[in-house]
Amino acid sequence: MKLVHVVGARPNFIKIAPVWRAIASLTPFEQVMVHTGQHYDVNMSDVFFVDLGLPAPDHYLGVGSGTHAQQTAAVMVAFERVVQQLGPDLVLVYGDVNSTVAAALVCAKLLVPVAHVEAGLRSFDRTMPEEINRLLTDQIADWLFTPSPDGDENLLREGVAPGKIHRVGNVMIDSLVRLLQTASRSTVLSELGLEPEDYAVLTMHRPSNVDSEDALGDLLNTLIRLSERLPIIFPVHPRTWQRLETLGAGEARGQLRLIEPLSYVDFLGLMSQARIVLTDSGGIQEETSYLGIPCLTLRANTERPVTVEMGTNTLVGQDTGLLTSRFHAILDGDDSWDRRPPAGISLWDGHAAERIARIILETLGRE
Ligand code: UDP
């Protein structure tokens, strides 16, 4: 049996790592990794392979940047050749990026079974490119591995056959659990001259926040003001650097400190000791929930509602007044949950990938 994994962007690398390892140790199946090249900077791609102990990809498609149509089409054309050459028994796709939907669509047309890891998440906001990728991938995937009950409910409501849905938990948390100890030895805090719990961490790259000059300018002005109370460390996504440079805002201002994107271990080291996290990332909402760290999400909606139910995550959208008041309230001690991990979301326990490997073994092993 031959399994092909398709990855292309930063969050994909964090998700594939435990699945790759679990399949290698629990099944006799051959594995092949295809990297589409959607993210290609060293600090958005290569460093993750080192930190996560992943082998080099077997195939590199080199699609690079472009519009959504260019990127999706380039992955499809290049990946179709790889599938025809390899003849896989199953293809695994991850998360919600353009590479995810492109690879799934190729497989559906070539009648190759597809497994979607992190299926069923919905923001119900079709202006988000990721939401389109999630909806389409889940309609054509044959195996849907969900992280939380809301994922199952969304899929059932959309008419997905119950037999295709497997709730396995959160593979991103598997990586966190495995590397948290290593991250605690990272020197990132001393390199940045920081003390534990005496700074905030910010990440921001969604089009809704960075593509409009007005929205980005308003957010930056608010963040600079907030950083007067607590330094804010901002590892800047390449997409956001471009926008900041256009705005002439690519320099640190006040205590808002702009740095290059960090490797996974360094970012985990930084995030796990932060007093508060501000983000529009999907994965970071989950990681802060696991770590019990207050997170203010710079989005009006989330495809990860369990993080809000947990109490760690608050959606502030682009409401700078709400962002300001929640930021100060948290610093004044208004966080009522237990900061010690594990914060207790069912199946977010470090073993989701093993459950995936066992399900694949049981099903493909019978064939
Ligand atoms: N991350 C990282 N370095 C950074 C910023 C984020 O390793 O400088 C990690 C973070 O811990 C999380 C993932 O990257 O696991 C989130 O990726 P991103 O925000 O790009 O994607 P999203 O989760 O929004 O799909």
Folded structure, characterized:
Helix content is 48%, strand content 14%. The chain has 16 helices and 13 strands. It has a seven-stranded parallel beta sheet, with helices on both faces. A six-stranded parallel beta sheet has the order 10-9-8-11-12-13, with helices on both faces. It is globular and about 60 Å long. The model has no long low-confidence stretch (mean pLDDT 94).
Topology (SSEs and partners):
Layout: E1 2-7, H1 10-26, E2 30-35, H2 46-51, E3 59-60, H3 68-86, E4 90-94, H4 98-110, E5 114-117, H5 129-140, E6 143-146, H6 149-157, E7 165-167, H7 171-184, H8 188-192, E8 200-203, H9 207-210, H10 213-226, E9 232-235, H11 238-247, E10 256-259, H12 264-272, E11 276-279, H13 282-291, E12 295-297, H14 305-310, E13 313-315, H15 320-331, H16 352-366
Parallel strand pairs: 1-2, 1-4, 2-3, 4-5, 5-6, 6-7, 8-9, 8-11, 9-10, 11-12, 12-13
Helix pairs in contact: 1-7, 1-16, 3-4, 4-5, 7-12, 10-15
The chain binds uridine-5'-diphosphate (UDP).
- Please name the CATH topology of the largest domain: Rossmann fold
Q: State the name of the first-level CATH class of the largest domain.
A: Alpha Beta
Report the β-strand fraction as a percent range.
5-15%
The stretches of 5 or more residues where confidence is low (pLDDT under 50) are none
* Helicity, as a percent range: 40-55%
Instruction: Give the integer mean of the pLDDT values.
Output: 94
Attached small molecules: uridine-5'-diphosphate
* Structural class category: alpha/beta
In total, the number of domains comes to 2
Number of helices: 16
